[in-house]
Design brief:
The chain is 33% helix and 24% strand. It is of the alpha/beta class and 293 residues long. The chain has 2 domains: 254 residues, Spore Coat Polysaccharide Biosynthesis Protein SpsA, Chain A (Alpha-Beta Complex), CATH 3.90.550.10; 33 residues, no CATH class.
């Protein structure tokens, strides 16, 4: 029987050390791209793809993520008094009424695999998606990366990893896969390795922060020993799952910004600012003036 994906997991317990001191008290997922935090972009992507239950795996100093998606009665009341209807409506639309949030505390920073496994009591025996907020993906067409993955799952009922080619010298930053291609965009996973050195990488095809999993992933996460960096690695669980069932790779349509790096974060801000309906043209004018273009 075909299963439908209605639940998404957002691992947001990471320390964000690459952005210190900005992330000392403020989660990296709350860093803004122009006027919206990274986590909101990821949540909007999930909701647009039909997700109804948002599961946040949080940690210490992450309470503001929960506050962000909670109703702000006082703020809405003040804005209404000042006649700022558009801003009130924008706040109210952050979370549609049919969508619910679940917040689970990851007691220790034991890695991405451990974070995903924390969602098991809520996921149960259902397929689900995982979105990493620091991978911001801008739509190329009408469909988001998550929507593309879910549509492929509906056809093939298999776990799927979103992938894209990276520079060979950067393979040590990603999970890298080798595949047997079905066509130009879909492949059958042959192997996956976490952050291999360029000379050892099986390809330059990198996994990005968008996944679809069947619930079978949990039995491997349950029994997984600590891997690279002394953490429970999601990549290791995927490798074990691959021994039991097919896993697909999918070259998504869209542009990914690595907002876990300072350069990627700045590039995303510039490009999203240029596309912003309110400030885009003025910002372009500023850049041309500053760069003498």
């Amino acid at each position: 029987m075909q299963q439908k994906i209605t639940k998404a997991v957002f691992p947001v317990a990471g320390l964000g050390t690459r952005f210190l001191p900005a992330t000392k008290a403020n989660p990296k997922e709350m860093l803004s791209i122009v006027d919206k935090p990274l986590i909101q972009y990821a949540v909007e992507e999930a909701i647009d793809a039909g997700i109804e239950t948002l599961i946040f795996i949080t940690g210490r100093n992450k309470h503001c993520i929960q506050d962000h998606f909670d109703k702000a009665y006082e703020l809405e009341t003040e804005l209404e008094k000042k006649g700022k209807v558009e801003q009130v409506n924008e706040l109210k639309s952050l979370l549609p009424t049919h969508v619910s949030c679940v917040f689970i505390r990851q007691s220790e920073a034991l890695g991405l695999g451990h974070a995903v496994n924390c969602a098991k009591p809520i996921i149960g025996n259902e397929p689900f998606v995982v979105l990493l907020a620091d991978d911001l993906v801008r739509n190329k067409g009408n469909k988001s990366c998550t929507q593309q993955l879910i549509e492929l799952f509906n056809k093939q009922q298999a776990s799927i990893l979103a992938v894209e080619p990276v520079a060979k010298k950067e393979t040590d930053k990603y999970g890298i896969v080798s595949i047997n291609p079905q066509n130009d965009v879909i492949g059958n996973l042959v192997s996956i390795v976490e952050k291999p050195k360029p000379e050892n990488a099986p390809s330059n095809l990198a996994v990005i922060g968008r996944y679809v999993f069947t619930p079978s992933i949990f039995k491997h996460l349950d029994n997984l020993a600590k891997g690279a960096g002394g953490e429970i690695q999601l990549t290791d669980a995927i490798a074990k799952l691959l021994q039991e069932e097919d896993i697909l790779s999918y070259k998504f349509e869209g542009k990914r910004y690595d907002c876990g790096s300072k350069l990627g974060y700045l590039i995303a801000n510039v490009e999203y600012a240029l596309l912003h309906p309110e400030i885009g043209s003025d910002f372009l004018h500023y850049l041309k003036k500053e760069l003498n273009l």
